[in-house]
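Q: How do we represent a protein-ligand complex in a form that can be generated token by token?
A: Start from the inputs.
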Amino acid sequence: MKNLFIFIFAATFAFSCSYPKLKKAETSSPNQAVRVSIQLNKEGKPFYQVFYKNKTIIDTSFFGFDFKNAISFDKNLGIVKTDTSSFDETWQMPWGEQLNVVNHYNELRVELQETVAPKRKFNIVFRIYDDGLGFRYEFPQQPNFDTALITEENTQFNLTKDYKTFWIPGDWDIYEHLYRTTSLSKINALQYAHHKDLAQTYIPENAVNTPVTMVGEDGIHLSFHEAALVDYADMTLKVDTTNLSLKSVLVGSENRDYKVERKLPFETPWRTIQISENAGGLIESRLIVNLNEPNKIGDVSWFKPMKYTGVWWEMHLGKSTWDYSGIQDMTSFTTDAKPSGKHGATTENVKKYIDFSAKNNIKGVLVEGWNTGWEHWIGFEDREGVFDFVTPYPDYDLKEVVRYGREKGVELIMHHETSAATETYAKQQDTAFALMKSLGIHAVKTGYVGKILPKGEYHHGQYMVNQYNNTVIKAAQYQVAVNAHEPIKATGLRRTFPNTIAREGLRGQEFNAWASDGGNPPEHLPIIAFTRMLAGPIDFTPGIFNIKFNEYKKDNQVNTTLAQQLALYVVIYSPVQMAADLVEHYEANPKPFQFIKDVGVDWEQTKVLNGEVGDYVTIARKERGTGNWFVGSITDENTRTFTIGLSFLEVGKKYTATIYKDGKDAHWDKNPTSIEIETLTVDSTSKIELHLAEGGGAAISLIKQ
Ligand code: NOJ
Ligand code: CA
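Then emit the structure tokens for the protein with calcium ion bound:
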């Protein structure tokens, strides 16, 4: 990837004087809207404040670290030096929501040192953007401080208002919770400490996971997250409901009495705050990727964004099984089902998906349950050594399927369910990725269901952060791109390692197939768009047409209309988008399926046309290469009417607009499949009126004539 347009303007003003005379430093964003100030109090404790257009967003909030092998780092500090500089570049995403990304910030770097023995040094660096900021800590090389064993990071975010907050609990093991909407002062994460449908979960504190998004009565929108999570633990945010304050709590391990171990010098991930006057600004912000380092793996043109089908939903519905003998019933997490003989990943079944995909402009087919070991995964403690990622079941001819796919122009997507047996996976990776390379397979979906082995580790602790990151780095060596399920949260590392294509890390579509609580409610995705999606691409797996699937499950269903399922291809961003339903359900509905066939999957531009967190959102995206536009609009359980102006279209050009909208009687529960399709000619002066049903949506393709 080339950085085509780099204009770097760096001005450095260094104030060097003998500390501790300097007590305060301040810098603003390029347009002055966001301002940060850092100061020391009388005890030499450093604190910061954040202002947006002179409103206090973060009031006096302290920094600090506790260590197992040293005294805490939080007082008796002096400012040794402060530097400010500016940076402005435009870089290109190899694939993404847009092609050109502006990365323009002012940096404030504050060097601190203890005024008393042991005189340790420590820097705080702020990057201040027009749409928010990030800050991180640097631990420079220094005598007598070789390794930091961090027991806690104490970064505070003291808010000034009781914001309406969209949050999931600070689970150390999974992000697959429903988002809750409460005021900050009413957050109670501990009440979700047990959930029947989660294969692993641990919520030790009244904390939330990030991104956590807040909306103030004055219209200020904030979202807290982190960027560049490398060799460190996930940061949850503990909520002080009385003082309206958040404080970092790192994810730990039962195997050590500290949470992070790092040799000096090192730097922490960026702690980020997105700030916007409207909800859409949060989605359009590129703060998280911008705070990550540029591409370190070079050309990734071997990975092409794609739509894919797969042997997947049929197992979640119970139509077929992952395991060959059919003794596992994953949909109820039991192992006592009678042998069914309904194995899904057979050569014949996969060829059916390949044929269907080839006919319909879909370039990938995912195959789950293809390799031996599925008889012994969920519910077993001794999971190491079970999966080997190279041995197919006897009814699956891997080479033949790959050959057949190639003949038809369809590539397989490999599946590595590790069952969280991390030592086995780390050992097997070279062999597994080499097999993929020899077969010309360039993408893998990984899975980490269950409690982590070795016992005592959590999915979001430093041990696992390194497992996930090492997997991506190793995969790149074999030209393999990774779509991780049960992952660590996205923190923009796709900029540095662009073979990080997508991940789960939320309650995906699968919950609609089997959750005991009725699945994802209609408000789920209008919240996800402004929370989880700010972190990075989501493998949500949209496109379920057989919404009620009563022939498989009477008590479960998808809680949206069919039109909303189409809109999700535009609203939810991922460079791999699944057409998740069964082939027969698409074949029975060719008219709405046309949208999935047509919709782009790699974008030159993204515009959020309207939206309110948790209520609705409408997004327009311009496809790379063709210049065609696609629009997706979704609502929660309330109906909405919008007038959408098409001024984003190329002036003077005519487009064929095909509008897939909820039928007049559509309703997510009472009549979810009622859909109307209308075709008209439009241009940049046209307006389209959309009426969204309860739990509904609309999808529009705008194809140049
Ligand atoms: C959970 C994943 O989220 C799902 O997509 C997958 O089918 C199963 N694990 C089996 O690996
Ligand atoms: Ca999952």
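The radius of gyration is 25 Å. The longest strand covers residues 77-92.
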